[in-house]
Prior knowledge:
Distance between the termini: 10 Å
Low-confidence stretches: none
Oligomer: single chain
Number of helices: 9
Number of strands: 7
Amino acid sequence: MDRLTSYFGISPDLITDLVLANRILAYHKVLDTFGHISVRCHVKSNGVDEDCYLQATYHAPSLVHTQDIALFSVRTGEPVDPEEKRKGALERHIHAGLYRARPDVQAVLHCHAPILVTYSILPNAESKTKLEPVIHVGSSVGRHIPIYEIADKFGRNTDLLIKTAELGDDLAKVFIPTVGMVLMRGHGATIASKSNVKDLVHKGIYAVINATIMRDATLLAAATGGVVKPLSDGEVEACGDWVSAVHRSWPAWVAELGLSKDEHL
Length: 265
């Protein structure tokens, strides 16, 4: 972290928040050992003037520390620091591609939460299996949740991973301004925040809770002849982004990690 703060001028608080975000999302089972989260920043220091993002190097989210955070270029998806030799996340181009396409996006999360993967392999037309917001705190990912189909452009012989800039740009095309989350068929989900990394943690946790509730409600409806009633466009808009709620949630999420006062992140 010392070089990030002293040479590149990155805020230590931003780095700490990103480390905590990794651990909180792992604790809540949003991230497994392969998921990742990033936060945007602009570096103007020591001859560098570039749009960048912070992301952990190749570590499981639950084990991320401040020294594991590296600086990547939005333009290339590669490390900004020529001294950075550590392996980055294999799918870091998810983040770079979305930041390039959406200047308003400030933080990006990619996860493989099983419930979201389940909805990614179901039909996404006007069907009863389409994932939609059904609870007010789940509205922040948007009313419409599309499914990205990598095979549409790259065929059925890929490993489904977003490992290149071309793949990252293709995924980013699905993120029109009204979309906050995209499911990725057979793979997972990518979620964006226009606010900050704390807001993105909120979105990630409640995206999984919303999907779980919708699955349970769908099963009950099938057994009883009922109908699942999603939020309307007007209700989603009225619920807003729930950014203000993060100030209440964040300290509780950090406390759940059980960090001691002397523990260094």
